[in-house]
Amino acid sequence: MLLIGIAGKELSAEERDWLQHPACAGVILFTRNFESRVQVADLTQAIRDAAPRPQLICVDQEGGRVQRFRMGYSELPSLDNFGRLFERDAVSALKSAEEHAWLMASEIRATGVDLSFAPVVDLGRGNRAIGNRAFHAEPGIVAEFTRAYVRGMHAAGMAATLKHFPGHGSVLEDTHFDEAIDPRTLDVLRNEDLLPFVAGIEAGADAVMMAHVTYPAVAPEPAGYSPRWMNEILRREMGFRGVIFSDDIGMAAAESAGGVAARIHAHLDAGCDVVLVCPPALVADSLAAMDARPIAHPDVLAALMGQGERHWRGLLADTRYDGVRARLAGPDFQVA
Questions:
Q1: Mean residue pLDDT across the chain
Q2: Which value, to the nearest 10 degrees, does the dihedral of the CA atoms of residues 83, 86, 90, 95 take?
Q3: Which range, of 11-15, 46-50, 249-253, averages the lowest pLDDT?
Q4: CA atoms lying within 13 Å on the CB side of residue 124
Q5: Catalytic-labelled residue, pool 176, 178, 285, 332
Q6: Which of 101, 110, 125, 197 is the most exposed place for a label (fewest CB within 10 A)?
Q7: DSSP state string for 217-272
Q8: Which whole-number Å values give the CA distances from 172 to 84, 125, 132, 147, 192, in the listed order?
Q9: Which letter, b or e, does each residue of 162-174 get, where b requires 16 or more Cβ atoms within 10 Å of its Cβ?
Q10: For position 298, what pLDDT does the model report?
Q11: pLDDT-derived band at 102, boundaries 50, 70, 90
Q12: Is 292 within 8 Å of 22 (Cβ atoms)?
């Protein structure tokens, strides 16, 4: 199945047609789709109304520089703030990260969006794309934050997605623009980058998003379309039973698989459940590529739909809301 991007703040006629395709599982929203809380709630409802089956509506609302919805939403600090606080006060840092997760997920759920792709559990080791999106450089510390963040998201009725498997933080290159190659062995990765994913799976994380990074000592192709990484290591060895998402196939590092159709087939054949097609310019070709494939039953994604009723009125009346916002706006936390 495919999760697609749309161009603007309202659905076009062509996009309504895309939503009719049996392979369209949902929509991922970006800043280009956002104007206000009311507008994005209307857009979300329009997506649901236009599709003949339930749609999974998603966003990246991590905090810091990756926060797609801003006006009318809490200004969420980046995750590296919690890592710095951990070095002074571990208990407070973990509690604050759990509150960050609850606040982020509660606001997104109140908007009518099912899922924010979070948390980032990559190690903070200098990757250009990850940067301050990571909690910390040390695997054990990131593992503790991963457990806390999953708890916070689940408390708000949102599924948690660990990204970017098996670890994007220890290479320099940004896979939006370049190929990235990590030469380390599987044993080294097990003792470092994989530790937060193990912790997240143990905590009940519902989904994993793959990295477009190649680990030639483990498999010849990027992890996002590697049967070894998904089927042997993630599924069999690590025991993950949730949903596997690709990262965006519009990214430069995904082009190694070939053209649009080849990318779709490579990711699905290798073990991805859902492929992200974020650039609208690639959606029509991606849907056409699905015409020759059997379509997974939509129940695959049922566990990722927002759990329980949630709306802004109820959130604003929640006695936790103002207190959490005030704490995360305090002197320990910077937004950038």
A1: 93
A2: -50
A3: 249-253
A4: 21
A5: 176
A6: 125
A7: TT-SSBGGG-HIIIIIIIIIIT---SEEEEEETTSGGGGGG-SHHHHHHHHHHHT-
A8: 21, 8, 14, 26, 16
A9: bbbbbbbbbbebb
A10: 66
A11: very high
A12: no
Q: Return the amino acid letter for 312.
A: W
Between CA 116 and CA 56 the distance in angstroms is: 11
Q: Position 115: which residue type?
A: L
Asked if residue 88 lies in contact with residue 135, where contact means CB atoms within 8 angstroms, the answer is: no
CB 41 within 8 A of CB 112: yes
Query: pLDDT > 70: what percent of the chain?
Result: 97
Query: Domain map of the chain by residue range?
Result: 2-328
What is the pLDDT averaged over residues 137-155?
97
Its CATH architecture, for the domain 2-328, is: Alpha-Beta Barrel (3.20)
Q: Which of 222, 297, 292, 286 is nearest to 259 (CA)?
A: 286
Distance between CA atoms of residues 249 and 205, nearest Å: 23
Q: Which of 122, 182, 247, 273 is catalytic?
A: 247
Tell me which residue of 28, 37, 64 sits closest to 304, measured CA to CA.
28
DSSP 8-state assignment for residue 289: H
182 labelled catalytic: no
Question: Model confidence at 243, in pLDDT bands (50, 70, 90)?
Answer: very high
User: How far apart, in whole angstroms, are the C-alpha atoms of residue 43 and residue 293?
Assistant: 29
CA 216 – CA 219 distance, rounded (Å): 5
Tokens of 307: 């759990």
Residue 140's φ and ψ, nearest 5 degrees, are: -65, -40
Residue 179 has pLDDT above 90, yes or no: no
Nearest to 68 by CA among 79, 78, 60, 76: 60
Q: Is the pLDDT of residue 26 over 70?
A: yes
Indicate if the pLDDT at residue 334 is higher than 90. Answer: no
Q: Is 212 a catalytic residue?
A: no
